[in-house]
Amino acid sequence: MKCEHCTRKECSKKTKTDDEENVSVDASSRAQDNGEKGEFHKLADAKILLSDCLACDSCVTAEEGAQLCQQNAKDFFRVLNLNKKCDTSKHKVLVVSVCPQSLPYFAAKLNLSVTDASRRLSGFLKSLGVHYVFDMTIAADFSILESQKEFVRRYHQHSDEQRVLPMLTSACPGWVRYAERVLGRPVTPHLCTTKSPQQVMGSLVKDYFAKRQNLSPEKIFHVVVAPCYDRKLEALQEGFSTALPGTRGTDCVLTSGEIAEIMEQSGLSVKDAAVDTLFGDMKDVAVRRHDGAGSDGHLAHVFRHAAKELFNEHVEEITYCALRNKDFQEVTLEKNGEVLLRFAAAYGFRNVQNLVLKLRKGKFPYHFVEVLACPGGCLNGRGQAQTKDGHTDKSLLRQMEGIYADIPVQPPESSAHVQELYQEWLEGTDSLRAQETLHTTFQSPERCTTSLDMKW
């Protein structure tokens, strides 16, 4: 049996009906076994459905399926309830990190400005018992800065003997999982080794922040609020080299829609609260974003950096040229009639397939491609931009795009806190510790030849 997104002939995923029953039964049995019937029991009904997953690789194993059952509100409320019991040895410090692409969803849903929506969300989470609420933009700063450096390094290394270009972004877990488990070589060597913002945030919370608070990593329960279900799968695979063995950077991922459902069911009287910082030195920090229409904007930032570093060209405005469709766009840097850089953005798996076919045939004109699984980018994640019948809520998406576009853009280079963290936490911008903390490796199984020839 295969789901609507599957690229293999056989699929181990269940139907939505099966998932609803299995997740519900599993979560209920765990709650009963643990005797956890606290005041939040009624609210803990949000669940992940495997058929909503964008990782079209038919590779959700039985073990991963069992772990995914814990990636829902039941596990979140389990920790909240444990914190209300007398046995303090089992208490956890609850930290929630919010993806910047989730904030426009809450602003649209609550009919608030993005800043007020951020404060309302923070106040609600803290009214439940969350101790700290962080904005993940700082993690995206690191991801973009490291991607910039990696591209320049690859550009200098690239040759006929060592073909390290194109560089394909690795911030989208749906795309990365598809590349690793379905495409394999020759795609995975082209994946950017920089960790995604979620993975970087896990390290910031479980390493840097934990040390500032004199906490061991396992005493922190880290929840990420994200636009898509694939972040749940990413959390299962996160390694964490600087913490205790077996500790994940992210313990639970809840989609924006799941949090909104909890807010609707709660009926709690909520006071707005400031979003916290990792440094504990500021309150009411202005909401900011990176230069991407519906994502963290790796393409725009890497393009400007490469133009300056490689050709001493200052690029102010970036002009996107839509090619096959609005989700496949090209950006070029030209001088005296010569194309110096050719970048592309490929969103949605239809465009991804065309991209991979060109790569296989050796007819690939791009130095860099920003690849995202969701058409339209992260704002269109299935965890927040979908109607109840599973279709894109186009009206809501347009509203979110307008809200996101109005958020001030701040380049990652301008963040003083990021530069301080490089020195204080990572022992320098080019240190071995920075390399180990901010970069990863990818699986490279033999490519599945049948998957690349499927019609999307």
Automatic annotation (TrEMBL):
What SUPFAM superfamilies does its record include? Fe-only hydrogenase (SSF53920)
SMART domains listed in its UniProt record: Fe_hyd_SSU (SM00902)
One GO MF term attached to the UniProt entry = lamin binding
Where the record annotates domain Iron hydrogenase small subunit, the positions are: 390-446
Q: Which of UniProt's keywords are assigned here? A: Nucleus, Phosphoprotein
Q: Where is this region: Disordered?
A: 12-33
What InterPro entries does the database record attribute to this sequence? Cytosolic_Fe-S_CAF (IPR050340), Fe_hydrogenase (IPR009016), Fe_hydrogenase_lsu_C (IPR004108), Fe_hydrogenase_ssu (IPR003149)
Q: Name one GO cellular component term.
A: lamin filament
Subcellular localization is given as: Nucleus
- Superkingdom of origin: Eukaryota
Q: How does this polypeptide assemble, per the annotation?
A: Interacts with LMNA and binds to the farnesylated C-terminal domain.
Tell me the protein family, please. Answer: Belongs to the NARF family.
This chain belongs to the protein called: Nuclear prelamin A recognition factor
Q: Which organism is it from?
A: Octodon degus
